[in-house]
Amino acid sequence: MKIKHFAILDSTSDYAIKFLLKNNINTDYAILTDEQTSGRGRLNNRVWQSPKGNFYCSYIINMGKLNITIEKTNILTSFVINLLRNFLNNITNSEIIKLKIPNDLLINDKKLAGVLVEVYYPYVVIGIGINLISSPIDRAANINDEFNILVKSEEIVENLYKELIFGMKECSYL
Q1: CA of 11: how far to CAs of 8, 116, 163, in Å?
Q2: What is the pTM of this model?
């Protein structure tokens, strides 16, 4: 995997999609930014506030090399959000991060993270936002405040990618 790290982008997912459609890529990529100006979620009319210091990353992954067929792509969001919950529970050494179907993670009924999965078969763009140090709205939480842990994006990007790839290879229903 190659990492393209930016100080600021409009949206990691938008950049990833444009990059994927413009280039003939032969490796997976992580599009990582310190701040987003026009982050988006599953519902395009919602504003996704993305201040500096949280985790904003979109992974471009070739599903063909993982033997994931187009018929299985409809369950990718469920798979990714569950994998992310387990990943964050391990980082925080807790079991209190909860799933809000279809694509959010909550702690104490406040949003901690979200996932956006978009398929451009044989590629998938997996956008992930995690509140690490700030909670952009009053209905949000962050890892630093909730667990007194300082986690940096650079510590997450490669480990989360490895978990995604391992999980997709090993998952019997993908």
Answers
A1: 9, 12, 23
A2: 0.93
